[in-house]
Fold this sequence. Notes:
Blueprint: E1 2-6, H1 11-21, E2 26-31, H2 38-46, E3 52-56, H3 62-66, H4 69-72, E4 77-80, H5 87-92, H6 94-114, E5 120-126, E6 138-140, E7 145-147, H7 164-184, E8 187-193, E9 195-197, H8 209-218, E10 223-226, E11 232-237, H9 238-250, E12 258-262, E13 269-271, H10 276-284, E14 290-293, E15 302-303, H11 308-314, H12 322-335
Parallel strand pairs: 1-2, 1-4, 2-3, 4-5, 5-8, 8-12, 9-11, 10-14, 11-15
Antiparallel strand pairs: 6-7, 11-13
Helix pairs in contact: 1-2, 6-7, 8-12
Amino acid sequence: MRIVITGGAGFxxxxxxxxxxxxxxxxxxxxxxxxxxxxxxxxxxxxLGGSLTFLRGDVANAADVxxxxxxxxxxxxxxxxxxxxxxxxxxxxxxMDFIANALGTLTVLEALRAAKSRAKFIYASTNKVYxxxxxVPVIEKQSRYVYETLPHGVNxxxxxxxxxxxxxxxxTADQYVHDYSRMYxxxxxxxxxxxxxxxxxxxxxxxxxxxxxxxxxxxGKKLSIYGDGKQVRDLLYIDDLIRAYDxxxxxxxxxxxxxxxxxxxxxxxxxxxxxxxxxxxKLFGKKIPIRNRNxxxxxxxxxxxxxxxxxxxxxxxxxxxxxxxxxxLYQWVMENTSIFL
Length: 341
């Protein structure tokens, strides 16, 4: 089996590469190494052994992506994970965000088409394509917000609303990936992902908040909480996400052209501070100081993915609980503090 992973030295990409290397696949990773920690993830992957090929390049550069074509011709699957990942960065530099996410995805799709590849193409989209969801009724409770009428969470029929440059660039790519299945017959799958967390995540304040809260606490950095801290997110442990990719690939035509909300679902949710704060303080055995900040534009008071479509169509559901996953991440960070220096 041959797997091509764009953004293969990133958090999700390196975990995916490790998964497939452990299963004796030929793994090709393509990355510009611009993300914090990418060089360390690449070094770690090289130490695992197995059939690993690294190509350095930018997904928005057609010449760079052209070097992938010989590998795409013989690939069984492509995980397209490369891109710009932070809403705040997109607001500061929307052009760069568009180039990385929208143009980058189109460039990879065109390379796939030029290669006449029959590989399964998995695109890591985001729940941000649904926007702020202001029109969805929400109830405020003591430690969290809850949906008034969505007991299973948000399904794939929710209206798209590309809020923020990041939402626009990822949403544009999301729709291109879906349409390339219809228009050109490519075997594509769109995964609209919730908050993913786990080992090898070099979280920062703007992105990867679960890891960032743990890293910041270890190094004595004060945390900023935007809004009232009752915002709810569903959380998905990295191993469960990689399993979703693999099961979607192995499902063949069942997932061809599919769009799926992939997250922890209603059973794996936390409010970002009112509930996660006490859990973090229990792990560290101390009170953790915070700074309260204003709400960020477009911030969803709650997002919980309805993941029933993925279960119905290719049998996937999360296995790692939020508490178990956070403990695993905490232990990994504690055991690897030197790589964050």
